[in-house]
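ok so I'm stuck.
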Amino acid sequence: MAAVRAAPRIRSLHLLLPGPDGVAAVRRNLSCASASPASVTARAMSSSSSSSAAPSPYTTLVGRVTCEREIKRSKFIAIAAPVPNERAAMSFLDEVKDPRATHNCWAYKVGEQFRYNDDGEPSSTAGKPIYSAIVSSGIDMVMVVVIRYFGGIKLGTGGLVRAYGGVASECLKDAPTCLVKPKARVGMEVPFDLLGTVYNQLQHFQAEDIKQDYDTGKDGTVMVMFKMEYEKIENLGNAVNSACSRKIELFL
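replied:
not stuck anymore, here's the structure
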């Protein structure tokens, strides 16, 4: 039995961005590459207030982790991995599930979207406890599959909940994690004579993948495109305007 939940997608982004919400502490001082949205409609950013919020930093797994436990002769193997979206979660399931096993139960959490499946176990005794373990861990963008090989002794509904939830929790408990700061693709129209000033600011704010497009339809102007962490964009805009002594429009 599967359950699906999804929240509305973020539709727009503005220059006034809130500070990051609380995020679980990074364990083992590891870092991950920041994520970028699949697509964002290009438009000028304004300083007007908006109900839309930029994506917050989140904690996820560094890589795949496994955990194995034997409970009343049944073998439970939990396998967890970071996933960027539902398609990747389902691909991971196809990769690790064992058709010879009695059950391949699973759950994933991708932002506000989640799903879980009991794979033949009594309703809410497997997938839901796995999902609860994910939520309790504070880890996001993650898929957990728990494979069970039946050992001949029934565990009962309570025993199943404890078994699936417990092995999932144990799998995630000491797993190496990292903090991911989402990034956006940003552009700005810059007069030729201000390119040097703008590039100094881009370097200062650690912009990445900087490119130029001279086909702007405006004489003496180039479109400079780059990637940057959401939480830095507002400060970059203010710094560029101050350094250039004029308003330089930014686009997302």
